[in-house]
Amino acid sequence: MEDILDQISKVKRDKLGTDIPILIFRVLRHYTNVYASDLLGERASNILFINAGKALGEALGQRLYDKDLNKYLENIIRFIEEEKIGILKIAHLDDSKLVVQLDECITCAGMDNIGKRICFFEVGLVAGLVEKYLGKRVIAQETKCNANGEGTCEVTVNFG
After folding, report:
1. pLDDT tens column, 20-45
2. Cα separations in angstroms, 40 against 35, 37, 47, 116, 151
C-alpha cells in the first residue's frame, strides 16, 4: 500500500494546483460507495471501504509513527487537520478502548440526516492507525455520524 501513497503523492498540476472542492471529493466518494453497494451488496461494500481505510491507516501510521503514544496521536491529529479531513479529537482513551470524534468530517459534515452511518472508510483508517501502533488487530466501529443526525462522526476502537 505504501507504493500507492508514493505514487499518488506525485501531483503535477501547474495551473490547477492540488486543491479540489469538497463537493468533487464527495461525488467521487459517495458514487463509488453507491456503485459498490449495488454491485456487491451494502454489507460487502461497507467491508470493502473499511478494509481500504485500514490499509491506508497502516501506511499513514508508518509515516506518522512515534513510539511515544502522545506524540503519535499529535502527529495524527495534525495530519488530519492539515489535510482537511476533519478536526480529530480524542474523546476517551484507556487500556481497553479509544474513542475519537471527527468534527467537520470531509465525508459527511453538513449533510442532511439520511438515517444511517456512512463513514466506513474513516472507521478503517482509525483502525489501521491504531493497529500500526499496537501491532495487533483491533475492533472498530462507527458510533456516531453526521449523516445519521448525530452531530459528529465518532469511531470507537476496542483493543481486544
Report:
1. 999 999 999 999 999 999 999 999 99
2. 8, 5, 10, 19, 29
